[in-house]
Design a protein that fits this description.
The relative contact order is 0.24. This protein is mainly beta. The chain starts with 9 loop residues before the first strand and ends in a 9-residue tail after the last strand. It has a 9-stranded antiparallel sheet, with no helix packed on it. It has strands at about 10, 15-20, 30-35, 40-50, 60-65, 75-85, 90-95, 100-105, 130-135. It contains no helices and 9 strands.
Length: about 150
């Protein structure tokens, strides 16, 4: 059996959303990249809050680069998030699969309450950022579930 080759990274532009009131993108920037090996998708998203950007009142969502398998386990964790307050420091978060096409980011310690990012853990300002990395299974699956 031949080993699968590493496909390299492909750029994509994730869409920044919110589980509550819509965000206003303003000058915020969002960029992503991903690669696929077999049915495994590895992705990264870099987000920088900008002038005129406004967070909605709930958890932030981002679109995934490739349609994933159906969400069978609520809150399935795909990866990690680092929230960067440019004037203070970093905070940790988790990335969960929300649907086959979106992920949601939660601050560690606030997962069960669904606390959004509007002012938690800091008031977002231009140059504050968020980096997400995660892994998930692409769709479609074969009949045997692989």
């Amino acid at each position: 059996m031949a080993a699968e080759t590493f496909s390299g990274w492909t750029s994509y532009t994730p869409v920044w959303g919110n589980t509550g009131t819509a965000n206003i993108q303003g000058a915020a920037t969002v960029a992503g990249r991903y690669h696929v090996v077999g049915k495994i998708v590895t992705f990264e998203i870099d987000f920088t809050f900008g002038a005129g950007s406004v967070s909605g009142n709930a958890a932030w969502t981002f679109t995934l680069p490739v349609t994933g398998a159906a969400v069978t386990t609520p809150g399935q964790i795909l990866g990690n998030a680092i929230l960067r307050d440019a004037s203070v420091g970093e905070y940790r978060g988790v990335v969960q699969q929300r649907s086959p096409t979106t992920c949601v980011v939660y601050l560690m310690g606030a997962i069960s309450s669904g606390v959004g990012f509007g002012d938690v853990p800091f008031t977002w300002a231009a140059t504050d950022g968020l980096t997400i990395s995660g892994v998930y299974q692409a769709f479609p699956l074969k009949a045997n579930g692989t």
